[in-house]
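1st attempt posting a full record on here, be nice pls
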Amino acid sequence: MSVPTLLLPVGAALVPAGGLLPAGPAGDAPALLRAVAGAAPAVLAAGPQDGVPFADAALRLVLLTALAVVAGSGLVRVLAGAPGRAERVVAGVAALVAVSAAVAAVTRSGAGPTGWTLLLAATVAVPALLATSRPVFSVLPAAVVTALLVLQLAGTPGAGPRFALDAGYAVAGALAAGAAVHLVTTRTDDSARPARVRVLGVAAGAVGAVLAVVRLVVAGPFSLTDLHGTGFGRAALVTVVAPAAVAGLLLAETWLTRRAAGGSRSEAVRADEVRDRLRTPSALAAVTAVGAATLLAALPAPAPAAVPGQALVRAVDLGAGPLTLAVAPMRPGPNLVQLTGAGVSVTGPDATMPAGHAAEGAPAGYAVRAGDRDVPFTARSGAPGGWALVDLPEGTTSITLTAGGLARAVPVDVGTDRTAPAGATGADGPECLSAALGRIVAGGDPELGPCPSETLDPADARALRGTVRALASQQAPGLAIAGDVSPRSRAAADAVRAEAAAAGLPVRSAPGPDDALVVLSGWQHAATTVRDTARTALTTPTALGGTYLAPWLLTGGVLGQSPGTLLPLDFGPQEQVPQRYVRTLAAVAPGSAPSLSGLRAWAATTGDPYTDPSPALYGAAPVSVPMTTDTGDGGHHGAPNEAAWFPGGAVVRIGSALDPGGPAGPTP
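the predicted structure (as tokens):
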């Protein structure tokens, strides 16, 4: 096993908001995504944190900072000559710290000693050779230590421009640290060697600052809100400021040295005193530069910049764990905001109040602030998490999530074009957002396209016709249709009526005792209809022929409203491809419910086929043994798995393939 593998993981994430640096509205879960999705598209950098212990991040910080000092102490020997006693002590202490941190890291990982032998040998060899009569030989092991530092800071070679930037920064950081340590431990300028070391330090600091600026442009943060509002952003700023400070301080020292050489004796003494005081902060700045670069690999990286018309998905940490915030359609005017995650519990009626008409003060729970108004998150029937409808005027650059006195700003960009998909913020908005999430988690276009409720998918039309034929073959006395005003629902109702007329099956305005109820509305209306029908059936026989849901109603918020429903589906929810979509969605946006619309968008992006030639009826019902979730320590608890198609329930095939026949009327 290689040294880079054994040492702390490159690109690991740090979860605790109160840890090394506040995480803020950002996150990344590359290891988890690679495990469940096989790849981590760049757009998935918006995902939540992947939880590496604080001790690991602290060990990495100590290890790599100490390695930079050791490497720099050896590399500067070409220009600095023999080190003084103080410099040898600093190099020796740094080597001891680096070796101790490496041993602790490998011990925590449970790996054997073979992989880190090279690291120990090279690190110890630098101070050992500094104490000999030929200290210049320490350049060789110092180069090895520098290579190890590069691998840890920059990751795998060949990763593109970012690797080159990080590798260059690691080398510049080591040289700046070596130059600054040499100068702070050398209190005289009796030779030209300190002057050459100063030039090296100025050059290394300037190069490091330039590389950090370029990396900031390439890798983010991509907004001022993330730059000053997240730990990653603040660490990125330090990677720019710290090496620039090294260059500036050493330039000031050069000016003072020249002034001392051309002035009086008293001026020279004062200049020497000031110059010596500048050397200590320059050394601290050099070490801080490497430490900040180390943190960039341990802190969750902010998501890509918000783009007008594209659904925004961000991880937000308010101190109680990662939450997922989604905003759509990202246009001026009404925008739908969803908040999901562990512990998100909202109450109240469906969020149908227009933006800007909410109460002036939000309750103590979660709320989103846009401008000078707080809009509380409330529940929407059929959809998980909390929902808020907020008005975002042109020029809005951020919204703020608040809870319990804490606040996190999330950058947004709504642009100027007010064109948005029909239904994006209405009753069918959650399903529309679910379809966008399906494309996003597959690495596709986050543009919010036409909402699924605007058209009837031919596959859904075939499934519904097959359902009506099955009811007719079972000699059902009749059926009733529960729909809404959406184009999809109206088209589906027309298809069901046409097929029922062809089969001689009466269609009633309300379900009788033995009739079947066919629900063709969107999530919100369907959840209410199914719930009310189940409650009515407890006292009055109603729809005993069964409650049949349209395929797009395969979502936990609807299925959980009844002790039993049936759906015509052309795929098995527990099959490999649908389950891969579910796992990927859970990794990127915890708390978001899987849906047929999301699965279709995901599969269209990935190109994975998942449908059967003919639909079949599936039954959905609660299960007596709860579907459990992993507690993180290998155990389980009894909470339903919120990432499932039916949390706390099961969806299983109950019959043979349906006969959809041909179109019984106009093609939907």
